[in-house]
Amino acid sequence: MTAESRPDGVRLTLLTHPATDALATTAFPQDEPLLPAGVRAARDAAGRLAGFRSAAWRCGPALRCRQTVAALGGTGVTIDDGLDECDFGHWRGRTLDELAAADPSGLEAWLTDPDAAPHGGESVRDLLYRATKWLDEVGTGPVRTVAVTHASIVKAVLVVALNAPPSAFWRLDVAPLTRTDLSGRPGAWTVRRTAERLRSDAE
């Protein structure tokens, strides 16, 4: 079944991966693995997603996303480059404190100007464009899709879905191992749940 056969279109669930060393140290991420506690948390939360086993699962190519989808029990997973982390260029692996000391003007530009890419990677506007293309693709696909990705992608998707200004990207807080739900079709999305923490069955 595809979006065209349902009056409310596609139902999309975005899941963020659990914690990594980069998150713990406020560093721009590299392709690091999950912390052991993050793997355990994802396994503990898997029961909450039992009803999604028949969904079309997508996963960003980063190791931490692939580890997350495995821990959650996703099956028939498609590795999707559209769900990859924002390209932080030569800032990968560096902490905010390091950059505040070494490149304060660049960091300030990144945090305020959606067109700035002082790290040589993607600007926020580039990321929003990528999120728009991804939503347009998913919005005409299987009626139930689960995507395991990064907080930056979830934030970009929310900005696009809400038709918010690019500056809204910095005003959204999306934590590790959270769930965000949308429904709709290209150009017409409704946000139904935002960054709700995945809890284990025991909680």
Give a quick rundown of the structure.
The chain is built from seven helices and six strands, in the order βααβαβαααβαββ.
Describe it for me?
Pfam families: His_Phos_1 (PF00300). With 203 residues, this protein is an alpha/beta fold. The protein has one domain: Phosphoglycerate mutase-like (Rossmann fold), CATH 3.40.50.1240. The chain is 33% helix and 18% strand. It has a 6-stranded mixed β-sheet. Helix 2 packs parallel to helix 3 and helix 4 crosses helix 5.
Radius of gyration using CA atoms only: 17 Å
Walk across the major sheet and give the strand order.
Answer: 3-2-4-1-5-6
Shape: globular
- Oligomeric form of this entry? single chain
Number of helices: 7
Q: What's the end-to-end separation, in Å?
A: 34 Å
CATH superfamily: Phosphoglycerate mutase-like
Total domains, how many? 1
What CATH architecture would you give?
Answer: 3-Layer(aba) Sandwich
Helix content: 25-40%
Structural class: alpha/beta
Strand content: 15-25%
Average pLDDT works out at 94
> Helix-strand pattern, N to C?
EHHEHEHHHEHEE
CATH fold field value? Rossmann fold
Give me the count of strands. 6
Major sheet attributes: 6 strands, mixed
Low-pLDDT regions = none
